[in-house]
Amino acid sequence: MTGNHKDNTITRRRAIAVTGGTVAAGGLALAGYQSAFADTETGAETTATASATSTSTSSACMTLMTSVTEGPYYLDGALVRKDIAEGKSGVPLTLRLTVVDATDGCTPVPGAAVEIWHCDAWGYYSGYTTANPGGSAPAESEDGSTADDRTYLRGYQVANANGVVKFETIFPGWYTPRTCHIHVKVHTGGEKEDGTYEGGKVNYTGQFFFDDDIAQEIFTLEPYSKHSGSYTTLDNDMVYDGGGASSGLLTLKAVHKKDPSKGYKGFLTLGIDPDAENTGAGSGGGGEGGTPPSGAPTGEPPTDSASPSASASS
């Protein structure tokens, strides 16, 4: 693959993320997607499912028993909104997630707030746009978008009566030494206020992952192809533990069979214990255990980071 080849020499450290971790009283159930997409398209749409996601078709409510770290790039004050891209260029990605109570027969959890954040096509996070994503990539400022450097690719959605939330975003890029991923927190007990979500508690902190073949095909496209270097595959990632859907591997459906640039839909069911509380410390290692990759800012984030300066929407 031009510019983004597999690197099988990276030390396998993923066990750090799943041993010695917090055994969750409230976990993340990642099961099934039968009700996740009610608005499926016809015609050119096709399924491109990761091989390890066969467990996602089960109707069983599975619980992930360990949390993972929130990583070094979390910021408070993300906006409540469906579209978090803010004009950032990349392959469109729609996420449809269903929050259920794993302790009560996987019944929906209406009002749960799902918060996600991830890097852009070149590996940069809002709030930390000077952090070096590794390899060779243009400066974040060269992307030509009008995205707010403090808020892009971060947001909340509050679950409807069926426990469903939906996000419109872009396929994440990558940065050394991590595989392609999206961070997630599930909150309950708070409420929308001043464009963001306040109060309550975090029930789960985790990450979503992408099939290697699909990710590396995406990374041959513009603007991703401008970031060259050694991409970390799932097997060599320090956080992903190989458990398929039960460990956060998204089921992906291509919008158009022959044109990946048209985008993907990703979906999972998230089972939580609404009575549990999670600090977000997790048990990840390396750059996700609290030490940012080379070039990342240190200390506290800017005090005005992720302020609700962009328009929020439900």
Short description:
By secondary structure, the chain is mainly beta. Helix content is 2%, strand content 28%.
Describe this structure in words.
A hairpin with a 5-residue loop joins strand 5 (92-101) and strand 6. It contains one helix and 14 strands; from the N terminus they run E-E-E-E-E-E-E-E-E-E-E-H-E-E-E. The chain is an all-beta fold and 314 residues long. The N and C termini lie far apart (39 Å). The relative contact order is 0.30. Strands 2, 3, 4, 5, 6, 9, 13 and 14 form an eight-stranded mixed beta sheet that branches. A four-stranded antiparallel beta sheet has the order 8-7-10-11, with no helix packed on it. Mean pLDDT is 77; it is low at 1-59 and 289-309. It is globular, with a radius of gyration of 18 Å.
How would you describe this structure in keywords?
1 helix; disordered N terminus; mainly beta; 314 residues; 14 strands; eight-stranded mixed β-sheet; four-stranded antiparallel β-sheet
Count of alpha and pi helical runs: 1
Q: What string gives the helices and strands in order?
A: EEEEEEEEEEEHEEE
Uncertain segments: 1-59, 289-309
The coarse overall form would be globular
Radius of gyration: 18 Å
Strand residue content: 25-35%
Secondary-structure map with pairings?
Blueprint: E1 4-6, E2 23-30, E3 46-47, E4 64-66, E5 92-101, E6 107-108, E7 113-117, E8 154-158, E9 164-170, E10 181-193, E11 196-209, H1 212-218, E12 229-231, E13 251-254, E14 264-272
Parallel strand pairs: 1-12, 5-14
Antiparallel strand pairs: 2-4, 2-14, 3-13, 5-6, 5-9, 7-8, 7-10, 10-11, 13-14
